[in-house]
Amino acid sequence: MSAITTVDVRRYMKQRQETGASNGAINRELTDLKRMFMLAAQAGKLMFRPHIPLLKENNTRKGCLSASSSMRSRRNFPVHMRRIAGFAYVTGWRTPSGILPLEWRQVDLKAGEVRLDPGTTKNDDGRVRPGLTPHDFRRTAVRNLERKGASRSVAMKLTGHKREAVYRRYAIVGSEDLRDAVWRLESADRYTSSYTQPSSKASKRVAQKS
């Protein structure tokens, strides 16, 4: 490993691209290589770690569901998947690692909570959900949390995102969000104007005094 340089890494990247490998696939391989170097350095086996660049990925997430489109899509699911899809829509949890392995011991009907045990999720964090393709539901839950005004730290804790960069790929901004932002600005401007501008009666009193 000590003989591997950044030039070697870039040469490998080019060779993999020429074979048709996607930037994402190459980056996963390079990430593994980075970890190998890090572990070797931690073990005292290496004194120098080369810079390992990553390729740009066009991985912006798409696809969100409104409440009505979520209901319509669930009708097309197999019967045994409909409640799972509904739970995914509400929680934003990952279906394979978060929802499907759930057991009744993790459901507290009295408290109205569903709990994910630490060490059972993708990032090993535990999670609690009050009340009650899979990534479309996950993106939808993120969007709903954003629209409802949940802080980013709370939303990330709830959905299980550790890195904000990844979370932002799920927080898709649509035309409805833009219209809502404009409406909020206009409403704030109208409120400010009505609060700061004197009434017509007050203006007349000022004019009479002058």
Total discrete domains:
2
Number of β-strand runs: 3
Beta-strand percent range:
under 5%
Oligomer: single chain
Gyration radius (Cα, Å) is: 26 Å
Helix content: 55-70%
Q: Can you summarize the main beta sheet?
A: 3 strands, antiparallel
Q: In what order do the strands lie side by side in the largest sheet?
A: 1-2-3
Overall body shape: extended
In angstroms, what separates the terminal alpha carbons? 87 Å
Structural class: mainly alpha
Point out poorly predicted stretches.
none
Number of DSSP helices?
A: 10
Mean pLDDT: 76
Q: What is the element string, with H for helices and E for strands?
A: HHHHHEEEHHHHH
Structure description:
There is one protein chain. With 210 residues, this protein is mostly helical. It folds into 2 domains: 1-59, no CATH class; 67-170, no CATH class. Helices cover 57% and strands 5% of the residues. The chain contains 10 helices and 3 strands. The protein has a 3-stranded antiparallel beta sheet with strand order 1-2-3. The longest helix is centred in the last third of the chain and has 22 residues, at 175-196. It is extended.
